[in-house]
C-alpha cells in the first residue's frame, strides 16, 4: 500500500488500524490543552520535527505514512489521507480545512467494486503557505517557497518560488529569492 501498489481497502488489518486512529484522534481532538493535544498527535505520526502545532480537528488514516518537518502550523480541520507517504518540509503553514489525499480509486468499475485501491505520495517542500480549503491530490509534489491560494485544487506538481491558485491550480506569479514578484 505505502509503495503505491494495489491493495484491498477493506483488508481487516487496515480497517482495524483506521478504527484505532479514529478512536485516538477523537479523544485527542477533544482535549482543551493544545500542547497536550499536539504532543499526542506527534506520537501517532511516522516523524515530525520541532515546533509542531495543529489546531483542533486533525484527521488521518494511519499516521505511519506522515512525515512533517520543523516549525509546522496547521489551522483547524486538517485531513491527511495517508495511504502513501505524505511528506511536508520545514516552516510550512497550512490554512483551515486543507486536505491531502493520497488514495487513488481505479477508473474501472469492476476494480472499484472489488474494493481495490492504490495510492500516490504527496511531497511538500520547505517554507510553503497554503490558504484555507486547499485540496492536494495524489502524486503531487509542491516545491519550496510556494504559496497556494485559498480554495485551490492542486492536481499536478509545481516547482519552487511560485504562487499557485485556482481549480485546477495554475501558476499566477513567479517569486524571487526574497519572496517578491519576479520581473517579467
Descriptive overview:
- The structure is a single chain.
- The chain is α/β, with parallel strands linked by helices.
- It has one domain (7-174): UDP N-Acetylglucosamine Acyltransferase, domain 1 (3 Solenoid), CATH 2.160.10.
- It is 18% helix and 31% strand.
- It is built from three helices and 20 strands.
- The protein has helices spanning 12-28, 34-44, 109-113; strands spanning 7-8, 47-48, 52-54, 59-60, 66-68, 72-74, 79-81, 86-88, 92-94, 99-101, 103-104, 116-119, 122-124, 129-130, 135-136, 141-142, 147-148, 153-154, 162-166, 169-174.
- The strands form four sheets. The protein has a seven-stranded mixed sheet with strand order 3-6-9-14-17-19-20. A five-stranded parallel sheet has the order 2-5-8-13-16, covered by helices on one side.
- Strand 19 (162-166) and strand 20 form a beta hairpin.
- The longest helix has 17 residues, at 12-28.
- 30% of the residues are buried.
Keywords:
184 residues; alpha/beta; UDP N-Acetylglucosamine Acyltransferase, domain 1; seven-stranded mixed beta sheet; five-stranded parallel beta sheet
CATH superfamily: Hexapeptide repeat proteins
Outline: globular
> Fraction of residues in helices?
10-25%
Low-confidence stretches: none
Concise overview:
The radius of gyration is 17 Å and the shape is globular. The longest helix has 17 residues, at 12-28. It is built from 3 helices and 20 strands.
Amino acid at each position: 500500500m505505502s509503495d503505491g501498489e494495489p491493495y484491498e481497502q477493506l483488508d481487516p488489518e487496515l480497517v482495524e488500524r483506521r478504527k484505532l486512529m479514529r478512536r485516538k484522534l477523537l479523544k485527542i481532538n477533544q482535549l482543551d490543552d493544545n500542547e497536550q493535544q499536539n504532543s499526542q498527535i506527534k506520537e501517532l505520526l511516522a516523524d515530525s520535527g520541532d515546533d509542531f502545532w495543529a489546531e483542533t480537528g486533525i484527521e488521518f488514516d494511519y499516521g505511519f505514512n506522515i512525515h512533517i518537518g520543523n516549525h509546522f502550523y496547521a489551522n483547524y480541520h486538517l485531513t491527511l489521507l495517508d495511504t502513501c507517504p505524505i511528506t511536508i518540509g520545514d516552516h510550512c503553514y497550512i490554512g483551515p480545512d486543507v486536505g491531502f489525499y493520497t488514495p487513488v480509486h481505479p477508473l474501472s468499475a469492476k476494480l472499484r467494486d472489488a474494493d481495490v485501491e492504490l495510492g500516490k505520495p504527496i511531497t511538500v517542500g520547505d517554507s510553503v503557505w497554503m490558504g484555507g480549503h486547499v485540496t492536494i491530490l495524489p502524486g503531487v509534489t509542491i516545491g519550496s517557497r510556494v504559496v497556494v491560494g485559498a480554495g485551490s485544487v492542486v492536481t499536478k506538481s509545481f516547482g519552487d518560488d511560485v504562487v499557485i491558485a485556482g481549480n485546477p491550480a495554475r501558476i499566477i506569479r513567479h517569486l524571487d529569492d526574497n519572496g517578491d514578484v519576479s520581473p517579467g
